[in-house]
Amino acid sequence: MFADVLLALPLGLLLAFTIGPVFFVLLETAITKGFRAAIAFNSGVVLADAIFILIVYFTTSSLLREIKDDPKLFFAGGLIMITYGLISFIKLKKDFKKTIDNKENAYLQVAEKVNYVALFIKGFLLNFINIGVLGFWLGIIIVFGPKLDMNASRIFVFFTSIILVYFGIDIFKILIAKKLKNRLTAFHIYKIKRAISIILLVFGVFLILQAFFPNVLQLTD
Q1: Tens of pLDDT along 34-79?
Q2: What is the enclosing helix (H) or strand (E) of 70?
């Protein structure tokens, strides 16, 4: 069992520092909404990963290869991500203008109640629409499954260790990002959120390109 945990450690580290839409939104959530909000968001991300792992484990690999390379799924996921990024970008401009018009304090003020359930769902959906994540977990089970003798208990320990490692590292990332919160003005927060919206648009475009050009880099967390 200990050997299986050690085998999972580098993969957990890799996953924690993989640059993708979830990575940026997690940091933005920590900066703008705080620690608990970021944990709620990240819990949704983990649930999506857990579902992908279950799908990978209980479905034949040949079928999963067909699913993960289905261009319609990449196109749909990319379109949803682009739509989300575009709506966020437009809404941000309106909200920031309202902030300026109301002459609010230049420093970030938490005026609205944080909806943790909504953040959990947001994290889940943002990770779940990224079909590249399914491909990542499929590759993991194909490569490491035989090394674990496809033993259910060993596979459970292995995947649980991966998730715990990257979730633990994410907590440190959240704590570091949270320290910036009180040093940012409303304008800085606006710039950060706008950058995140643009990043989501870019990742959405990459997903759509993946539908038409399968050799384009696939996206993970």
Answers
A1: 899 999 999 999 999 999 998 888 875 555 555 555 666 667 767 7
A2: none
Tell me, yes or no, whether 205 lies in a domain: no
Number of domains the chain is built from: 1
Tell me the H-state helices in 17-151: 21-33, 35-58, 61-68, 71-101, 116-128, 131-144
Per the structure, the complete domain to which residue 10 belongs is given by 1-79+110-185
Question: Which of the four pLDDT bands, split at 50, 70 and 90, describes residue 105?
Answer: very low
Q: How many angstroms separate the CA atoms of 209 and 221, rounded?
A: 18
Nearest to 40 by CA among 138, 133, 121: 121
Question: Is position 93 within any domain?
Answer: no
How many alpha carbons lie under 13 Å from residue 26 in its C-beta half-sphere?
29
Q: Which amino acid is at 134?
A: L
Asked if residue 49 is part of any domain, the answer here is yes
Q: Residue 90's closest CA among 214, 217, 219, 193?
A: 193
pTM (2 d.p.) = 0.71
204 in any annotated domain: no
Contact between 40 and 130 under an 8 Å Cβ cutoff? The reply is: no
